[in-house]
């Protein structure tokens, strides 16, 4: 395990990190998408200028930056999500480069090239599919020597059945193990694991008994320690590939609104009455895209005391969409005339719950009372690997109480004395109040969110 090295004060990356932490702490950067873009830009600058001899040193550095960003503002979960996503991409690119190095001809003269193994299948030494099993240890070996085994459908079915047993028992290769397990210990010959694909294993971090560390070298795919050391020294040459992977994340963030809005016409039908709250850029793009093919009416709650509904109504009206701006107190009375509720999200938790603008909880409760569907449009970068975050005080964000109580009267506070005024910025929406999440990667029910998070992040990065 690589020791965690703190950021040095004289390092320019430290100054960049301090500047972003200060902006997050002072709420100078607001919104999940803005925070995610700022985090990705910081990581790109760090990867460009960082000096590292192994890939583990870079991962430790990025994790340290991620912890500082999360501590600066625990409410902005997008910063930690982007760090986790980039860490996973870096490991994937490193494994791909390791697999290419393994499949290349040996650099040491006189070393035979044995070619790659069958990817993904590593049978135990006692299994008949194992290369370590000698012929004499098989049952009825003498009889089998005189009668060669012919390929048949039954043999093929038996092999498929054996592979299924290996998968259930955990003997199948875990593709998401730590990158340090790509090589064996310095005192033993280094063996590379099978090359994974970009969308390979989705079961995360490698606690199974059949991980890469438990693979026994069988003579094929084994590299000498010199080849392993040579590849480790070339980790710094992977910078262009790593930067390109980070740029793909940035491009995905920049087109999130457009990607979510592509399927808008499948969720909104003509003559519907849509209710929304506040001003979400994702919901705005979703409604504008749907209005190109469908004609409907939008009811917008003004969302006091921020009154973000006013800017949302102005934006939709500029696109000739019929809009009705109503006070928050009229939501329950208008709900019978509404056909669908569409909301944006600040962050989505692994249990299917989400943080949304204050007032969204009352909208969802009214929608459930009148059996109206609730659809949440959000980018997948907002999915955070946290379950009970709404119980933590650090995740609760509050605004100034003067927006609610006012500043009139002696001493301010509307003349009230001894009263504690709470003005939350976000509401927590339980997963049972949401029917569907529309993301840039497709439509998913709340019960499937945990699986999407499992595919997006590695288990070792859940805690930065």
Can you tag this structure with a few keywords?
single chain, 464 residues, alpha/beta, Four Helix Bundle (Hemerythrin (Met), subunit A), Rossmann fold, 3 domains, 3-stranded antiparallel β-sheet, 39% helix
Can you walk through the features of this model?
- There is one protein chain.
- This protein is α/β, with parallel strands linked by helices and 464 residues long.
- It contains 15 helices and twelve strands.
- It has a seven-stranded mixed beta sheet with strand order 5-4-3-6-9-11-12. Strands 7-8-10 form a three-stranded antiparallel beta sheet, covered by helices on one side.
- Helix 10 links the parallel strand 3 and strand 4.
- It is globular and about 70 Å long.
- It starts with 11 loop residues before the first helix and ends in an 8-residue tail after the last helix.
Describe the structure in brief.
The protein has helices at residues 12-25, 32-49, 55-72, 77-103, 141-146, 153-169, 225-233, 239-254, 256-261, 281-291, 308-318, 331-334, 360-369, 402-405, 449-456; strands at residues 190-191, 222-223, 273-277, 297-301, 323-326, 340-344, 347-348, 354-357, 374-377, 426-429, 436-439, 442-444. It has 464 residues and is of the alpha/beta class. It is globular, with a radius of gyration of 28 Å.
Oligomer: single chain
Helix content: 25-40%
CATH topology of the largest domain: Rossmann fold
SS element count, helices: 15
- List low-confidence stretches: 114-123, 127-131, 133-149, 166-223
* Name of the level-1 CATH class of the largest domain: Alpha Beta
**What's the arrangement of strands in the largest beta sheet?**
5-4-3-6-9-11-12
Kindly give the count of domains: 3
Q: Give the CATH architecture of the largest domain.
A: 3-Layer(aba) Sandwich
Secondary-structure-derived class: alpha/beta
Name the CATH superfamily classification of the largest domain.
Answer: Translation initiation factor eif-2b, domain 2
* Ends distance: 15 Å
The largest pleated sheet is described as: 7 strands, mixed
H-E string: HHHHHHEEHHHEHEHEHEEEHEHEEEH
CA radius of gyration: 28 Å
- The total of beta strands comes to 12
Gross geometry: globular
Overall residue-averaged pLDDT value: 76
Strand content: 5-15%
């Amino acid at each position: 395990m690589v020791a965690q090295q703190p950021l040095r004060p004289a390092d320019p990356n430290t100054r960049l990190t301090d500047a972003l932490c200060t902006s997050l702490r002072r709420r100078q950067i607001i919104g999940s998408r803005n925070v995610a873009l700022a985090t990705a830009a910081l990581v790109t600058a760090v990867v460009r200028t960082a000096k590292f001899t192994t890939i583990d040193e870079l991962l430790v550095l990025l994790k340290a930056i991620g912890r500082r960003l999360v501590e600066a503002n625990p409410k902005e979960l997008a910063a930690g999500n982007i760090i986790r996503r980039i860490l996973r991409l870096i490991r994937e690119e490193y494994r791909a480069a390791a697999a290419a190095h393994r499949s290349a001809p040996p650099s040491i003269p006189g070393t035979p090239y044995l070619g790659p193994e069958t990817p993904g299948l590593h049978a135990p030494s006692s299994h008949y599919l194992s290369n370590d099993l000698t012929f004499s240890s098989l049952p009825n070996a003498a009889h089998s020597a005189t009668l060669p085994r012919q390929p048949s459908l039954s043999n093929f079915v038996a092999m498929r059945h054996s592979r299924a047993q290996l998968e259930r028992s955990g003997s199948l290769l875990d593709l998401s193990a730590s990158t340090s397990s790509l090589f064996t210990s310095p005192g033993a010959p280094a063996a590379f694991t099978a090359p994974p694909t970009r969308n390979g294993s989705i079961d995360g971090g490698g606690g199974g008994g059949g991980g890469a560390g438990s693979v026994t070298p069988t003579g094929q795919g084994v590299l000498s320690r010199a080849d392993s050391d040579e590849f480790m020294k070339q980790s710094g040459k992977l910078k262009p590939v790593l930067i390109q992977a980070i740029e793909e994340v940035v491009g995905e963030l920049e087109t999130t609104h457009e990607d979510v809005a592509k399927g808008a016409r499948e969720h909104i039908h003509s003559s519907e009455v849509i209710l929304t709250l506040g001003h979400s850029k994702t919901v705005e793009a979703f409604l504008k895209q749907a209005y190109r093919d469908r004609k409907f009416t939008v009811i917008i709650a003004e969302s006091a005391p921020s009154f973000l509904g006013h800017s949302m109504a102005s934006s939709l009206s500029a696109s000739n969409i019929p809009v009705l701006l109503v006070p928050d107190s009229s939501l329950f009375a208008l709900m019978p005339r509404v056909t669908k509720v569409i909301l944006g999200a600040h962050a989505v938790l692994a249990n299917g719950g989400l943080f949304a603008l204050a007032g969204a909880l009352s909208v969802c409760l009214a929608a459930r009372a009148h059996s109206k569907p609730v659809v949440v449009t959000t980018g997948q970068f907002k999915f955070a690997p946290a379950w009970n975050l709404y119980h933590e005080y650090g995740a609760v964000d509050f605004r100034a109480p003067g927006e609610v109580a006012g500043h009139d009267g002696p001493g301010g506070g509307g003349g009230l004395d001894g009263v504690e005024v709470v003005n939350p910025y976000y509401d927590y929406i339980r997963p049972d109040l949401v029917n569907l999440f529309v993301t840039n990667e497709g439509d998913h029910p709340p019960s499937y969110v945990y699986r999407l998070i499992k595919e997006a992040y590695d288990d070792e990065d859940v805690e930065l």
